[in-house]
Amino acid sequence: MADLIISYFDNVDKGVAGGPLKAETLVTSGTSAASAAIPDTSDVCLIFSVASHYVTIGEGTPSAAASNSFYLPANQQMWLRTFVAEGQTVKIAAITA
Asked: What residues have CB less than 8 Å from 97, skipping those under 6 apart?
């Protein structure tokens, strides 16, 4: 098992994240795991990987796989735009690589 840490922020201005909204740790393994719903006030999130992962974002409960996700190496971080339209439920999913 490995951890993927996701921190959500309400905005970004001039390359700097705004107010933090929440953080969660997604425990992953050989099967895809999905986050809680992204806060509807979140504009960006920072994803930090303690192990190599394939990561995706999508409506409902997405399923991460090498064929539909981006690769995030171990001990790296990735900024991701997380704008959620009114009425949408969007989540982040990951699977260990």
From this structure: 51, 52, 53, 54, 66, 71
